[in-house]
TrEMBL record:
Name of protein: Nickel-dependent lactate racemase
An example molecular function term from Gene Ontology annotations: lactate racemase activity
InterPro entries, A to Z: LarA-like, LarA-like_C, LarA-like_N, LarA_C, Ni_dep_LarA
Domain Lactate racemase C-terminal: 273-343
Superkingdom to which the source organism belongs: Bacteria
Domain LarA-like N-terminal: residue ranges: 8-195
Length: 418
């Protein structure tokens, strides 16, 4: 037997596995560098943009957009370097909650740190409110409504993490605007592009794909229509939440550069599929709720054999993470769900369909704090006894941080990673 630690919420669980279990790790590891050196280097060498200190001018009204508690980006650390360079007192901070629920003051303080929390005006996006300005409509029909603080600011600074994203290709960048600081209407119109005209999941709305991805291209078109004066700082975090790379400058160009870095260092090529895959989101906040945790399930399923079982460690301390997600499971027939999605799409409806599609070919058991009734409503099973894992006789893969690491099936038949 081999013992491994699995991150689960803010704790770690120790589990025993058969010796033949394969722990998947990336082929390439980026060179270790000091975090301050990484950030300063990125800020000193912006991509397709003036330096940050030249981008802003004294007297500018500056809005800094940062991720909410569902996205870790080391905001408190990054902001210290940013604020040293812009030397401006007219600064407001806006949390890009997207369509997520509001945060407590303690949660906002934890993200920003005491000094920044105490010294700046802080806001968060309320997608269901009326605090939005209309900028226009994209060629795909998305009506662009952004938080009024965006239009009332001279310069926008976007700080976030660049990560894999299961339908937008990569997270971060302009996605911090849509859906980050957009209205619910804008968000659902954009996210509905995950569906084909027949109600299936659009194959172009997927991991690693930016060019040709309808979600991403709609976001980029929206950003260009708004014609904002914006500067982007995107960081890449490892499994220990250490900054291992950073990119700054033009919102689109610097994000794409970061996406290439993530693609190189955070994908794991795998020759064969496995009978069982054991995965963890990597702990809080990656498993803060089920909607965020689904990314882990999605990544893991790529290397699972048809009829296999996925065992997923996702705490979900904040529950489901969506007010409308569970409504979709009253449609037990995926075809009926697709018809309803086309007629009455709501946020995360495509996530429900994606989960249903996985359950047609695989079993999914979750170790979670979710109520058993909710787990079973979604068609999942509750992993109550982790000791069953050490009794598995089949081929086994383990992904300890499946929200940030993406296994790529490269073909073949042997359950052995490249």
């Amino acid at each position: 037997m081999k013992k491994i630690s699995i991150k689960y919420g803010k704790t770690e669980l120790e589990i025993e596995l058969p010796d033949h279990a394969t722990i998947l790790t990336p082929q390439y590891i980026p060179a270790k560098r000091d975090e301050a050196e990484i950030l300063n280097d990125a800020l000193d060498n912006p991509i397709d943009s003036p330096k940050l200190e030249n981008f802003t001018q004294p007297g500018d009204k500056i809005l800094i957009i940062v991720p909410d508690k569902t996205r870790k980006a080391r905001v408190d650390f990054v902001l210290k370097f940013v604020l040293e360079r812009i030397k401006n007192e007219k600064i407001k901070i806006l949390f890009a909650n997207g369509t997520h629920s509001k945060q407590s003051e303690a949660e906002k303080r934890e993200i920003l740190g005491d000094e920044i929390y105490n010294n700046f005006e802080i806001f968060e996006n309320d997608a269901h409110g009326d605090n939005f300005i209309y900028y226009g409509k994209t060629s795909r029909g998305t009506e662009i409504l952004l938080n009024k603080l965006v239009s009332s600011s001279d310069k926008i600074l976007i700080i976030g993490a660049i990560t894999h994203h299961y339908f937008a290709g990569f997270g971060g960048g302009a996605k911090m605007l849509i859906p980050g600081v957009s209205s619910y209407k804008t968000a659902i119109q954009n996210h509905k592009l995950t569906l084909t005209p027949d109600g299936d999941i659009n194959p172009d709305a997927t991991n690693l794909k930016l060019d040709g991805n309808p979600i991403y291209e709609d976001i980029v078109e929206s950003f260009k229509i708004c014609n904002l004066k914006a500067f982007h700082i995107g960081v890449v975090l490892d499994e220990n939440d250490k900054i291992i790379s950073a990119f700054s400058g033009d919102v689109i160009s610097s994000h794409k550069a970061g996406a290439e870095f993530v693609k190189k260092f955070f994908t794991i090529p795998v020759k064969g599929k496995f009978d069982a895959v054991i995965s963890s989101a990597g702990g809080f906040p990656k498993d803060v709720n089920f909607i965020q945790s689904h990314k882990t399930i999605h990544h893991s399923h790529y290397i699972l054999k048809e009829g296999g079982t996925l065992f997923c460690f996702i705490e979900c301390r904040d529950g489901i993470g969506s007010k409308t997600f569970l409504d979709w499971f009253k449609f037990k027939n995926p075809e009926e769900m697709k018809r309803q999605l086309l007629q009455n799409y709501s946020m995360n409806g495509h996530t429900a369909l994606s989960l249903q599609n996985k359950l047609k070919i695989a079993n999914i058991s979750v170790k979670s704090k979710l109520d058993r009734g909710l787990i079973e409503l979604m068609g999942l099973k509750s992993l109550d006894d982790v000791d069953i894992l050490k009794k598995l006789k089949c081929s086994i893969a383990v992904i300890k941080n499946a929200s940030i690491y993406l296994p790529i099936y490269t073909g073949g038949h042997n359950a052995t990673p490249l």
